Known about the structure:
- By secondary structure, this protein is an alpha/beta fold.
- It has helices at 9-16, 32-41, 59-66, 82-91, 108-111, 129-137, 155-162, 172-180, 218-230, 236-239, 245-252, 265-273, and strands at residues 28-29, 49-53, 71-76, 96-100, 118-123, 148-154, 181-189, 194-195, 202-209.
- Helix 8 crosses helix 12 (265-273) and helix 9 packs across helix 12 (265-273).
- The chain is elongated, with a radius of gyration of 20 Å.
Amino acid sequence: MSMDGLPPLREVIERHGLFAKKALGQNFLLDLNLTRRIARTAGRLDNATVLEVGPGPGGLTRALLMEGAERVVAIERDERCLAALAEIAAHYPGRLEIVAGDALKTDFSALAANTENVKIVANLPYNIGTELLIRWLTPSIWPPFYQSMTLMFQREVAERIVAKPGSSPYGRLGVLAGWRTDARIAFDVPPQAFTPPPKVTSSVVQISPIEEPLPVDAGKLARTTEAAFGQRRKMLRQSLRPLGGEALLAKAGIDGTRRAETLSVEEFVSLAREL
């Protein structure tokens, strides 16, 4: 038995035939010391409901429960993993809720209804991580339903989330995250920590909402950043032509010869307000 009284994860994976599927973006974390470090990065969990996406065989799920999470809601698309997760639920009666389904079709705010302290903690599947993050950053209602997000991404994506204007990773993610949240890279996770090992280093990112971000329509800001960084090597007067080009830039008081990566979050907000 492992430190939580459940069988070691390698044994669980073998018993249930849970080889990682590349099509689902799966890479399993088996080291409970590492998953507990991720859980601790999220802060105190004893009065929290934790939403987890893509738990797989439940390595991080177990760590969250070991660290005292009052309730964990795990959303898993892979039906092969449900039996292994059910064993964890039985070991922690009343504390683990398993939702069988696609995270991209899940109403997370509904799962968090009537709950004050909600945290999102996940080793996100690589193929949906960015899309989920953008959805969580751009809801129409703010402050959002969550108190914080502790998420694992490929290092390259993590650098884009925390990037500042003028840096090479700065782009759409950096603007959207910088607009409404404080984001930092907590620590890196080497490839050999996973089964199977990916070809890249991963990073855990801690994201906390800002209570009163600059007021602007989230959809308009998303459209503006998408257009600007969709052709990031071009001048803004060209990349933003579908949204108004020179006229839009003039209203916001921004030089049309500049490129997207030179604009601050505040300047992108100004552009979006003028749409």
